[in-house]
Write a sequence for this structure.
């Protein structure tokens, strides 16, 4: 199988996964009620010929964002450089696919009371599809080439830079969600009066807990410092400056997000993260692989253990705080009975963009686990041994995610959920796979 065929199959799989996600998310929690096909069809036609009804601005924006990946993946899967005519035909086909998928999801919602079938949702997802086509025309070929080089080719492509840009884009999205944006000067003034624009660095550090709460910002910029020093061979000062400028840009963006707090403290914290990541890049051993973990020095073992403990401590603090455990039997019985085994059920009823933020936040928290394990353990194995270690890591990530969610059963302010467990495992495996690919490139 050629790399070209493999990358096409990957995008077809992602396209199918995206379609399943849209249909699944539209029907949760699956309270099916039979409806004759003729009545359902008549209901859909009534929706299509009626004037569009805007449910909310956030719902509109969420549907636009949901529609973007479909046509992008469609063009990535079926685009070919050999036929210009076929490429031109694929653009309207991709938009039609997006509209048909949206209409199908809205039609199926007629069989599930509680879900709303709206023409505005179809139009918004189609609008997002047009944006997805525009994204493909701008960066599609570059993205496809980079993924092919990263996954299937040992080439000189700048896949490291591509991954860094993806990482920075994910951080930007995480800080911009839930996209409740406003650029009014009056709104900015009210935020300043309410104390949600903090211009004096470290002025909020009034307790040790406030200092600990700032550590994720340092950790977020460590990969940037590591990449610039280790891969690009930049000096530590340059890595610190880039991280500081990136953190300043994120704080500037958050000025216009109503639900966010802008804190100048994050700028020096970003610089510290860039410095810490750069130091780790200098201290870590070269990318040599050995079939046994003997290639790992005591220094790397200590560094990996320290990073794992720091990640685990921050994760426990984030998901178990304020640590008000209760062990009452009746309380615990009710908590266990309230746990839903239907993925995404707990997110129904929340604003779509807020749910997207919560999902992305859970994913991001467990990505470092995969990166740490791949960097300090998996990369020292090859062949069957590497696959066995990857399977072991999958079991470990399942157990750690289960530990975090199980602990939330004893906390009245927390809500254990199978969706979060799945997201944690997915985040850990994603970090592990991407980090392993990067190390593999450096060792070839």
């Amino acid at each position: 199988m050629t790399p070209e065929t493999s990358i096409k199959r990957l995008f077809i799989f992602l396209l199918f996964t995206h379609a399943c996600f849209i249909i699944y998310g539209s029907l949760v929690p699956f309270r099916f009620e039979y409806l004759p096909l003729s009545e359902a069809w008549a209901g859909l036609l009534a929706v299509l010929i009626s004037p569009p009804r805007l449910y909310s601005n956030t719902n509109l924006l969420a549907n636009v964002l949901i529609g973007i990946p479909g046509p992008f993946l469609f063009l990535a899967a079926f685009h070919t450089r050999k036929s210009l005519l076929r490429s031109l035909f694929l653009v309207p086909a991709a938009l039609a696919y997006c509209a048909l998928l949206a209409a199908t999801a809205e039609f199926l919602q007629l069989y599930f009371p509680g879900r709303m079938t709206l023409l505005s949702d179809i139009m918004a997802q189609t609008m997002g599809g047009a944006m997805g086509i525009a994204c493909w025309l701008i960066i599609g070929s570059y993205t496809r080439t980079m993924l092919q080089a990263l996954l299937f080719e040992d080439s000189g492509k700048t896949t490291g830079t591509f991954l860094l840009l993806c990482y920075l884009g994910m951080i930007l999205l995480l800080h911009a969600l839930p996209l409740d944006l406003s650029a009014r000067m009056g709104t900015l003034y009210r935020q300043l009066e309410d104390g949600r624009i903090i211009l004096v660095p470290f002025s909020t550090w009034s307790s040790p807990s406030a200092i600990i709460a700032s550590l994720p910002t340092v950790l977020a910029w460590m990969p940037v410092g590591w990449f610039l020093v280790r891969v690009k061979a930049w000096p530590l000062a340059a890595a610190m400056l880039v991280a500081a400028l990136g953190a300043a840009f994120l704080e500037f963006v958050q000025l216009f997000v109503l639900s966010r707090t802008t804190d100048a403290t994050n700028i020096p914290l970003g610089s510290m993260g860039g410095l810490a990541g750069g130091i780790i890049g200098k201290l870590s051993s070269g990318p040599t692989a050995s079939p046994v973990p003997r290639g790992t020095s005591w220094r790397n073992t200590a560094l990996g253990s320290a990073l794992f403990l720091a990640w685990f401590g921050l994760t426990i603090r984030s998901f178990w705080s304020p640590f008000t455990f209760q062990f009452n039997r009746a309380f615990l019985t009710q908590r266990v009975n309230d746990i839903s085994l239907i993925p995404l059920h707990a997110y129904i009823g929340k604003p779509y963009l807020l749910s997207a933020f919560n999902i992305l936040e859970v994913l991001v928290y467990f990505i470092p686990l995969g990166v740490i394990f791949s960097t300090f353990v998996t990369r020292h194995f090859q062949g069957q041994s590497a696959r066995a270690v990857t399977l072991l890591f999958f079991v470990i990530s399942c157990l750690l995610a289960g530990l975090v969610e199980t602990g939330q059963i004893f906390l009245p302010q927390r809500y254990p959920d199978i969706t979060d467990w799945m997201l944690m495992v997915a985040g850990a495996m994603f970090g592990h796979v991407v980090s392993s690919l990067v190390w593999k490139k450096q060792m070839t």
The chain has three domains: 3-157, 184-283, 288-444.
